[in-house]
Amino acid sequence: MPFDSKLQRKIMGQFATGVTVVTTGEGADRTGLTVSSFTSLSLDPPLILVAIDNRSTSRDDIRRNGSFAVSILSVDQEEASRKFATPGPKDFSAFAWKTAVTGAPILEGSLAWVDCRLHSVLPGGDHEIFVGEIVAGDAAEQQSPLLYYSGKYRRVTE
Ligand SMILES: Cc1cc2nc3c(=O)[nH]c(=O)nc-3n(C[C@H](O)[C@H](O)[C@H](O)COP(=O)(O)O)c2cc1C
Question: What predicted TM-score, i.e. pTM, was given to this entire model?
Fold first, then answer.
Protein backbone atom coordinates (compact mmCIF):
# COMPACT_ATOMS: atom_id res chain seq x y z
CA MET A 1 0.00 0.00 0.00
CA PRO A 2 1.48 3.40 -0.93
CA PHE A 3 1.72 5.85 1.95
CA ASP A 4 -1.31 8.17 2.23
CA SER A 5 -0.49 11.27 0.15
CA LYS A 6 -2.78 13.51 2.24
CA LEU A 7 -0.90 12.48 5.37
CA GLN A 8 2.43 13.04 3.61
CA ARG A 9 1.30 16.59 2.71
CA LYS A 10 0.19 17.16 6.32
CA ILE A 11 3.51 15.90 7.67
CA MET A 12 5.59 17.96 5.23
CA GLY A 13 3.40 21.01 5.94
CA GLN A 14 4.95 21.01 9.41
CA PHE A 15 8.36 21.58 7.87
CA ALA A 16 8.77 25.37 7.64
CA THR A 17 10.64 26.50 4.54
CA GLY A 18 11.74 29.65 2.82
CA VAL A 19 10.30 30.51 -0.57
CA THR A 20 12.24 30.93 -3.81
CA VAL A 21 11.49 31.78 -7.41
CA VAL A 22 13.38 29.61 -9.91
CA THR A 23 13.81 31.32 -13.28
CA THR A 24 15.30 30.48 -16.64
CA GLY A 25 15.58 31.86 -20.16
CA GLU A 26 16.18 35.16 -21.87
CA GLY A 27 14.05 37.63 -23.83
CA ALA A 28 10.49 36.50 -24.50
CA ASP A 29 11.43 33.00 -23.29
CA ARG A 30 11.88 34.07 -19.67
CA THR A 31 9.87 31.91 -17.33
CA GLY A 32 9.90 30.52 -13.81
CA LEU A 33 8.04 29.07 -10.88
CA THR A 34 7.75 29.35 -7.11
CA VAL A 35 9.77 26.65 -5.36
CA SER A 36 10.24 25.73 -1.70
CA SER A 37 12.20 22.50 -2.32
CA PHE A 38 15.51 24.38 -2.53
CA THR A 39 18.47 22.82 -0.74
CA SER A 40 22.21 23.23 -0.63
CA LEU A 41 23.76 19.96 -1.84
CA SER A 42 27.55 20.32 -2.04
CA LEU A 43 30.24 22.93 -1.33
CA ASP A 44 32.94 21.35 -3.48
CA PRO A 45 31.77 21.47 -6.20
CA PRO A 46 29.19 24.18 -5.30
CA LEU A 47 25.83 22.48 -5.93
CA ILE A 48 22.22 23.20 -5.00
CA LEU A 49 19.05 21.31 -5.89
CA VAL A 50 15.38 21.97 -6.51
CA ALA A 51 12.63 19.37 -7.02
CA ILE A 52 10.26 20.25 -9.87
CA ASP A 53 6.88 18.68 -10.57
CA ASN A 54 6.63 16.68 -13.81
CA ARG A 55 3.56 18.80 -14.68
CA SER A 56 5.49 22.09 -14.48
CA THR A 57 5.55 24.01 -17.75
CA SER A 58 8.91 25.61 -16.80
CA ARG A 59 10.66 22.28 -16.30
CA ASP A 60 11.42 21.65 -19.97
CA ASP A 61 12.64 25.25 -20.38
CA ILE A 62 15.24 24.73 -17.64
CA ARG A 63 16.37 21.51 -19.27
CA ARG A 64 16.54 23.13 -22.72
CA ASN A 65 18.38 26.25 -21.51
CA GLY A 66 20.76 24.24 -19.35
CA SER A 67 20.71 26.96 -16.69
CA PHE A 68 18.54 28.54 -14.02
CA ALA A 69 18.65 31.12 -11.23
CA VAL A 70 17.15 30.88 -7.74
CA SER A 71 15.96 34.08 -5.99
CA ILE A 72 15.36 33.65 -2.25
CA LEU A 73 12.35 35.80 -1.43
CA SER A 74 12.11 38.44 1.27
CA VAL A 75 8.98 39.03 3.32
CA ASP A 76 8.11 41.87 0.90
CA GLN A 77 7.93 39.52 -2.09
CA GLU A 78 4.78 37.50 -1.33
CA GLU A 79 3.20 38.90 -4.50
CA ALA A 80 6.06 37.45 -6.59
CA SER A 81 5.57 34.08 -4.90
CA ARG A 82 1.86 34.10 -5.78
CA LYS A 83 2.43 35.17 -9.39
CA PHE A 84 5.12 32.56 -10.04
CA ALA A 85 2.92 29.86 -8.49
CA THR A 86 0.48 30.23 -11.41
CA PRO A 87 1.04 27.69 -14.20
CA GLY A 88 2.00 28.86 -17.69
CA PRO A 89 3.87 31.86 -19.14
CA LYS A 90 5.03 34.42 -16.59
CA ASP A 91 4.80 38.21 -16.96
CA PHE A 92 8.06 39.73 -15.75
CA SER A 93 6.97 43.31 -16.45
CA ALA A 94 5.70 43.80 -12.89
CA PHE A 95 9.13 42.97 -11.44
CA ALA A 96 12.56 44.53 -11.42
CA TRP A 97 15.19 41.95 -12.29
CA LYS A 98 18.80 41.64 -13.34
CA THR A 99 21.01 38.96 -14.87
CA ALA A 100 24.39 37.57 -13.84
CA VAL A 101 26.25 34.90 -15.84
CA THR A 102 23.69 32.59 -17.47
CA GLY A 103 21.14 35.28 -18.43
CA ALA A 104 18.41 33.82 -16.20
CA PRO A 105 16.45 36.64 -14.50
CA ILE A 106 17.17 37.32 -10.81
CA LEU A 107 14.43 39.18 -8.91
CA GLU A 108 15.60 42.49 -7.42
CA GLY A 109 14.85 42.83 -3.72
CA SER A 110 15.53 39.14 -3.04
CA LEU A 111 17.35 38.17 0.15
CA ALA A 112 19.93 36.21 -1.81
CA TRP A 113 20.32 34.53 -5.18
CA VAL A 114 22.33 31.94 -7.08
CA ASP A 115 22.84 31.65 -10.82
CA CYS A 116 23.45 28.05 -11.92
CA ARG A 117 24.45 25.91 -14.84
CA LEU A 118 22.37 22.74 -14.96
CA HIS A 119 24.63 20.02 -13.56
CA SER A 120 22.26 17.01 -13.71
CA VAL A 121 18.64 15.93 -13.58
CA LEU A 122 17.71 12.97 -11.39
CA PRO A 123 14.43 11.05 -11.29
CA GLY A 124 12.23 11.66 -8.23
CA GLY A 125 8.85 10.00 -8.70
CA ASP A 126 6.32 12.61 -9.82
CA HIS A 127 9.07 15.26 -9.60
CA GLU A 128 12.56 15.59 -11.05
CA ILE A 129 15.57 16.78 -9.07
CA PHE A 130 17.42 19.58 -10.86
CA VAL A 131 20.98 19.94 -9.60
CA GLY A 132 22.60 23.29 -10.36
CA GLU A 133 26.27 24.24 -10.20
CA ILE A 134 26.56 27.77 -8.79
CA VAL A 135 28.41 30.14 -11.14
CA ALA A 136 27.43 33.39 -9.38
CA GLY A 137 25.48 34.48 -6.32
CA ASP A 138 25.13 37.02 -3.54
CA ALA A 139 23.29 37.65 -0.29
CA ALA A 140 21.83 40.84 1.16
CA GLU A 141 22.43 41.92 4.74
CA GLN A 142 19.75 42.04 7.42
CA GLN A 143 16.49 41.42 5.61
CA SER A 144 13.61 39.25 6.70
CA PRO A 145 12.65 36.06 4.81
CA LEU A 146 9.29 35.02 3.41
CA LEU A 147 8.37 31.71 5.07
CA TYR A 148 5.86 29.01 4.16
CA TYR A 149 4.44 26.82 6.90
CA SER A 150 1.28 24.70 7.18
CA GLY A 151 -0.06 25.97 3.85
CA LYS A 152 0.33 29.69 4.66
CA TYR A 153 2.83 32.47 4.13
CA ARG A 154 4.46 33.49 7.41
CA ARG A 155 6.96 35.99 8.64
CA VAL A 156 9.62 35.91 11.34
CA THR A 157 8.24 37.68 14.43
CA GLU A 158 11.10 37.59 16.91
C1 LIG B 1 5.09 28.19 -1.44
C2 LIG B 1 5.10 27.35 -2.68
C3 LIG B 1 6.12 26.42 -2.88
C4 LIG B 1 6.17 25.63 -4.03
N5 LIG B 1 7.19 24.74 -4.20
C6 LIG B 1 7.26 24.00 -5.33
C7 LIG B 1 8.36 23.11 -5.54
O8 LIG B 1 9.26 22.98 -4.71
N9 LIG B 1 8.38 22.39 -6.70
C10 LIG B 1 7.41 22.51 -7.66
O11 LIG B 1 7.49 21.85 -8.70
N12 LIG B 1 6.35 23.35 -7.48
C13 LIG B 1 6.26 24.10 -6.34
N14 LIG B 1 5.23 24.96 -6.16
C15 LIG B 1 4.16 24.99 -7.17
C16 LIG B 1 4.55 25.77 -8.43
O17 LIG B 1 5.03 27.06 -8.13
C18 LIG B 1 3.31 25.88 -9.33
O19 LIG B 1 2.86 24.59 -9.68
C20 LIG B 1 3.54 26.69 -10.59
O21 LIG B 1 2.30 26.98 -11.14
C22 LIG B 1 4.37 25.97 -11.64
O23 LIG B 1 4.43 26.84 -12.78
P24 LIG B 1 4.75 26.24 -14.21
O25 LIG B 1 3.83 25.05 -14.42
O26 LIG B 1 4.45 27.37 -15.16
O27 LIG B 1 6.19 25.82 -14.23
C28 LIG B 1 5.15 25.77 -5.01
C29 LIG B 1 4.12 26.71 -4.82
C30 LIG B 1 4.10 27.48 -3.68
C31 LIG B 1 2.99 28.49 -3.50
Answer: 0.98
